[in-house]
Specification:
With 141 residues, the protein is of the alpha+beta class. Helix content is 40%, strand content 12%. Helix 2 runs antiparallel to helix 3.
């Protein structure tokens, strides 16, 4: 039976409490974001992010040796899945709205892709695996 070395990651929030003298809350927030002083920062282990797969290689102890194996998106970090899904949905919406404005029918392949994207978005929100992409959607640019 084959062995695989898998790298998983989680994000550990680090925070700091700082006081700023500012004319408005917005200015104070800008000062805080621009502040590069990391003294006094603390880790928040109780709020660490989800564990997600960041790499997989065939063999024992094989991390970063040889070719990495592609990891399916549903093993990735939820925030990255959501960002990719947003980009996909925005692109599909632009195509469908463009067709509607031009008073032309949206090709069935695009509607199938949109239905799959909706199902994928629901899976992401539910923390589930992605649905299988329909074959006709893979042929679209």
């Amino acid at each position: 039976m084959p062995q695989f070395t898998i790298e998983t990651t989680y994000h550990l929030p680090v925070f700091r409490h700082s006081t700023y003298l500012a004319e408005t809350p917005d200015v104070a927030c800008r000062y805080a974001i621009e502040d590069t002083d990391c003294s006094g920062q603390r880790e928040d282990c109780e709020s660490s992010g989800e564990t997600h797969v960041t790499g997989i290689w065939e063999g024992a102890g094989a991390a970063y040796r040889g070719q990495a194996i592609p990891v399916h998106a549903h093993f990735g970090e939820a925030v990255q899945r959501k960002a990719a899904q947003f980009e996909l949905m925005l692109g599909l919406l632009k195509i469908i709205v463009g067709d509607a404005k031009a008073r032309r029918p949206t090709p069935p392949g695009w509607l199938g892709k949109a239905e799959w994207a909706i199902a994928r978005g629901e899976a992401i929100l539910a923390g589930a695996r992605d649905p299988v992409e329909p074959g006709d959607a893979k042929d679209l640019p």
